[in-house]
Amino acid sequence: MDQVGRIFRPPSEGDSLLLQVSLGCSHNKCSYCAMYDLPEQKFRIKDWETIAADISEAAAWSENGLAIRRVFLCDGDALILPTDYLARILETLREKIPSVRRVGIYGDARSILRKSAVELTLLRELGLGIVYHGAESGDDDVLRRMNKGSTAAEAAEAASLLAGAGIRHSVMVMLGLGGTEHSAEHAAKTAALLTLMDPPFVGALTTTLVPGTPLFAEAEAGRFALPDPWGILEELRVLIRESKFTRCRFHSNHASNYVPLSLNLPADREKAMISLDRILERREESSLRPEFLRGL
Ligand code: SF4
Hints:
The chain is an alpha/beta fold. It has one domain (11-285): Alpha-Beta Barrel (TIM Barrel). It is 39% helix and 17% strand. Bound molecules: iron/sulfur cluster.
């Protein structure tokens, strides 16, 4: 398989075939992000010959007994690829590896909203089953400061478009992204956005300061400070208490988090509140994932 640079995938795509159809991220400007900072990961769409050769290679594995049920299309926001190119990839996967049941992809509000309802429906019919979308915050001031390139209203519109097309939507939000100064507004507005989006999956990650990023430089200059672990947990508590979901699998089990939770909301809300309240009341370091185990 032709794989260039570092490959990222959502935790739930751990068993998927990782098919790199583009490099990097077409936006690549979020202040906290260093995912695609290698020179060889400058955004580009891979040529058809390379992608087709990778699919043929995976098809040969499949014919030799490897069960390939899921495929994840990398890199960063591969949904930005033209619809006809994505359709060709999905059709070829379906033809060459018929065992594939679901294809996943990273997208953001920009790339989702560039597609029409008809285009997204076509992609769903060809096998696109889930879009992983880093909405990060419901606070437009935070999104602007982080150079996210989209607003909360656009994230909500993107959710509605995906739901209408029948594509599952997994939304990531970032605890601590408002810093200590805007922590309360960030949490409350993110809960309000999640209520509007009402996705079937939510992952809450904890913001980490990565050397080399603009956010790291802001922190070094004293213009941004992450909440401490208890402040991060207060934000998590607000998200769980205030987001109103129809039916959502809510995770905070990413390696960056201090307290891993895996909840069905709204059913598990009260249980989670009791548990978080107890942790916040006692403030015992032993109830937090140790820093050295927080994979960043
Ligand atoms: S859109 Fe995602 S991958 Fe691209 S810069 Fe922002 S956080 Fe990084």
